[in-house]
Amino acid sequence: MIRSLVRGAGSALPPRIVTNDELAARLDTSNEWIVERTGIHQRHIAGEGETTATLATDAARAALADAGLEPGDIDLIVLATATPDNTFPATATKVQAALGCGPCAAFDVAAVCSGFLYAMSVADGMLVSGQARRALVIGAETFSRILDWEDRTTAVLFGDGAGAIVLEAQDVGDLGRNEGPGILTSQLHADGKHHDLLYVDGGPSTTQTVGHLRMKGREVFRHAVVNLAQVLGDVVAKAGVRVDEIDLVVPHQANIRILEATARKLGLPPEKLVVTVDRHANTSAASVPLAFAAARADGRVKQGDLILFEAMGGGFTWGASLVRL
Ligand code: UT7
């Protein structure tokens, strides 16, 4: 049986940190409101010369170093982003050139905050079917470039950054679906009816502008808790594992209240949650791999751990993956 194994992880954050108080100095908001309603204390914001591609490249380099691999060892790059450097070509191809990989497949996946889950699942399918052997899966965003900085209901919520993992196809022999290492199961969903609850009001084929992020936060919140609880339950059942066997949950980091409510619904103790929303805010497709890299760097992740990844975002899109290291 071929499985996709996680070989390494890395991340990159712009050095510039913007605190809630800095935002409160120019918007009708306060540190207290932001912390109480979201759990966010600060976010990293890209500076001049920093783009989705440069952050993605730095995260990918760190993941390759963690895996002990060279750019030439990679034969697939899947990059999740909603803030590409250009409408085309794919930001993944800029990363490929910057790293100096061979002429391997490289493309972007657009599923907004669930993008990393989608990218990981696509890469897993290509590895397991033999189309590639080692993949870089990257989530990278510069949401600061699509925010309406006059809109306090969205400007305080997002940040920039990138995270990456290296996946490697390996023959793990004859194993049950819930035994051994690798991606055990993934499940993805979308429901396009909810387009207007979270979207960008511009694009090449509509307005010929980049546009700004618009969100009806309260409605998104409600859907997020319901959809995530459902997909998490499904993925656990599909893999045939018990909730108490899960060592760590690496969730999309939109709001500490969503993370905690979802964990409660599943019966998972809060100490099993990886939380980075306080430091990174919501970095969309980058948030899950950034949180995973942070947990590894903190020593919270051990070989053999069963990890649940989950995310929900614009589209709506949502999904979950169960992975054993
Ligand atoms: O990553 C993709 C998925 N995204 C999400 O999951 C985000 C989901 N939504 C959320 O996290 C929350 O809904 C928010 C953090 C966006 C908002 O929190 P909330 O508790 O749902 O607040 P609300 O939208 O119900 O607003 C409550 C009040 C409103 O005032 P009124 O109408 O009660 O007078 C807002 O105008 O808070 C006001 N408000 C603010 N006040 C100070 C909204 N934004 C701010 C702000 N500072 N930045």
Secondary structure blueprint with pairings:
Layout: E1 2-12, E2 17-19, H1 20-24, H2 31-38, E3 42-44, H3 52-67, E4 76-80, H4 91-99, E5 105-109, H5 115-128, E6 134-142, H6 152-155, E7 160-171, E8 182-190, E9 198-200, E10 213-215, H7 217-239, E11 248-251, H8 256-266, H9 277-280, H10 287-297, E12 306-313, E13 317-324
Parallel strand pairs: 4-5, 4-6, 11-12
Antiparallel strand pairs: 1-7, 2-3, 6-7, 8-13, 9-10, 12-13
Helix pairs in contact: 3-4, 7-8
The structure holds oxa(dethia)-CoA (UT7).
Description:
The chain is globular. It folds into 2 domains: 2-171, Peroxisomal Thiolase, Chain A, domain 1; 182-324, Peroxisomal Thiolase, Chain A, domain 1 (3-Layer(aba) Sandwich), CATH 3.40.47. The chain contains 10 helices and 13 strands. By secondary structure, it is an alpha/beta fold. Helix 3 crosses helix 4 (91-99) and helix 7 packs parallel to helix 8 (256-266). The strands form 4 sheets. It has a 5-stranded mixed sheet with strand order 1-7-6-4-5, with helices on both faces. The longest helix is centred in the C-terminal third of the chain and has 23 residues, at 217-239. Bound molecules: oxa(dethia)-CoA (UT7). The site of oxa(dethia)-CoA has 19 residues, from helix 2, helix 6, helix 7 and strand 12.
Sum up the structure in keywords:
single chain, 325 residues, alpha/beta, Peroxisomal Thiolase, Chain A, domain 1, 2 domains, 5-stranded mixed β-sheet, 4-stranded mixed β-sheet, 10 helices, 13 strands, globular, binds oxa(dethia)-CoA
